[in-house]
Write a structure and sequence with these properties.
Helix content: 40-55%
Strand order of the largest sheet: 5-2-1-6-7-8
Mean pLDDT: 95
Strand content: 15-25%
Largest sheet: 6 strands, parallel
Length: 508
């Protein structure tokens, strides 16, 4: 049988959390742009949890950009979907199932535009959530809000807000709390600036533009949860046999979740009452702390450890976590080097250590196939943006080479040195596997490696200011340590190097 409201009474509540019958009478409070798995696995998860605890008591209307012929899966399943939460939390292996009922209905902008605009007249509507990817937060200057359906997400949002402003005669209490979750720094500030410029291009009323900025609350946000999405065919079949029903919208996520929302406004906090349902939601005057923890300890660690893992023969993150030496490397990298570089008046030692411990649990998740070569996409840009500031900060604090960061950077240079060009594409081969490089800077490494020994290659790359916006060869001892480390990789192999260095440091 297929998941729908009609079968909820037949689902074993001991196996899966299901909504009560009164849940379906809750009003529509949220307009959500996007049906993607991140939204369903994070914001919608929190809202569903709060509804089941009688905290928020509101449902979601989803706007999708594509048209669908006939009833789609959301209609067939009454907006319901199963959320599988699998992984390690607090040292325990979790495998939980939730039937999420937060989505009331899904509307197509191409087909149901009048219905979407009509929602602007609802006093119950309070919140707008979006995830249209980074490409969605762009100004499309040709968008006109009174000439059919605007093409861009900002155009659609502006049309909705303008319609609301007109319906409520510019009332100051008719504004919305707007929560973009696109992975762009200061995403709400960017969205507000785009709306302002688009309003000017549409020659909208000055009083509307004032209302746009004063009655609405644009809140920068940061989301963090791995949501791989739809289950594999084998996993879906196993889940269906276990649960007793089929679900074409079933998704999976890790246990860890974070939604940091930047605001110090009491009205915002009141409207976002679902934040009381889960400690993963944080409303704070500044979310810089959370962005820094994620960027440096999660993303930065991924980038530093990516090349060592590939060179050591590991294909996935969870596979690498079976190596004692690799786990020791990650632990020493995060807690002894990265952590001290990010601690300040906002990030305490406990914050950094606790987050690094969570990172290790997330890396070890046995249910997620996170391939290292996928992490290596745009490798050079990631190393520069995420990790170069850490290397510089470590030098500023200690005036010496950061040992674990240097291993990661040396492995990166070693990995990129073997780039081979064929018909304008670059690839590398290690441990019997050939990997296509998706890095626009591959040509620089390929050219630097030609007719160069290790010392010359390392110097050329470090001194290339187009890559790093500075000359890294001036960092005291860094160049020599990189050359030494790369030599050790060649003679001993990465695994032996990691084991020797981490064992030495553990015994000190």
């Amino acid at each position: 049988m297929k998941l729908s409201k009609n079968i909820l009474k037949d689902i074993n509540a001991g196996e899966v959390s299901v909504p009560g019958s009164s849940y379906f009478d809750l009003p529509e409070k949220v307009l959500q742009f996007g049906t993607g798995v991140l939204l369903r696995g994070l914001p919608d998860y929190y809202i569903d949890k709060a509804n089941k605890e009688n905290i928020f008591n509101g449902r979601i209307v989803v706007v999708k950009s594509t048209a669908t012929s006939g009833a789609d899966t959301f209609d067939q399943q009454d907006g319901l979907y199963t959320h599988c939460i699998r992984g390690i939390s607090g040292g325990n292996l979790l495998n939980n199932y939730i039937v999420n009922a937060s989505i009331r209905r899904v509307l197509s902008a191409a087909v149901h535009w009048k219905e979407i605009l009509a929602l602007s007249a609802s006093a119950d509507m309070q919140i707008i959530i979006s995830n249209t990817t980074e490409a969605g937060l762009v100004l499309m200057s040709s968008d006109r809000i009174n000439a059919g359906v605007p093409a861009s997400f900002p155009g659609k949002l502006l049309a909705f807000l303008h319609s609301r402003w007109k319906h409520f005669s510019g009332s100051s209490d008719s504004g919305m709390v707007i929560l973009p979750t696109e992975l762009v720094p200061e995403n709400a500030n960017l969205l507000e600036d785009i709306l302002d410029e688009l309003a000017q291009l549409n020659e909208l009323e000055d009083s509307f533009i004032v209302w746009l900025h004063t009655a609405n609350h644009f809140c920068n946000t940061l989301v963090d949860r791995i949501v791989p999405g739809k289950l594999s065919a084998d996993m879906a079949e196993t889940a269906a046999a276990h649960l007793g029903y089929e679900d074409d919208l079933m998704i999976m996520s890790e246990p860890f979740s974070l939604w940091a929302i930047e605001s110090d406004n009491d009205e915002v906090r009141s409207k976002l009452s679902f934040s009381k349902a889960d400690k993963g939601i944080v409303i704070a005057p500044s979310i810089t702390k959370f962005r820094e923890l994620k960027l440096r300890l999660l993303n930065g660690t991924h980038t530093f450890s990516c090349a060592p893992a590939i060179l050591a023969g590991f294909e996935t993150v969870k596979e690498a976590m079976s190596s004692t030496a690799f786990v020791a490397y990650l632990n020493q990298l995060m807690q002894h080097e990265i952590a001290i570089c990010i601690m300040d008046e906002h990030i305490s030692p406990d914050d950094a250590i606790h987050f690094s411990e969570q990172v290790l649990e997330r890396f070890a998740n046995p249910y997620i196939e996170h391939r290292w070569i996928s992490i290596a996409v745009n490798f050079t840009e990631k190393m520069c943006r995420r990790n170069l500031p850490l290397i510089q900060k470590y030098y500023g604090l200690n005036n010496q080479v950061p040992e674990m960061m240097t291993i990661g950077f040396a492995a990166f240079l070693f990995f990129m040195r073997s780039a081979v060009e064929e018909e304008g594409k670059y690839s590398v081969s290690y441990n019997g596997r050939t990997h296509q490089l998706e890095d626009p800077n591959s040509i620089i490494f390929c050219e630097a490696a030609k007719s160069s020994n290790t010392e010359q290659y390392v110097h050329k790359i470090l001194a290339n200011q187009s890559l790093w916006q500075m000359d890294l060869s001036v960092l005291n001892g860094f160049e020599n340590e990189l050359v030494t480390c790369m030599g050790q990789f060649e003679t001993s192999g990465v695994n032996n190097v990691l084991e020797a260095i981490t064992s030495k440091n553990a015994g000190e």
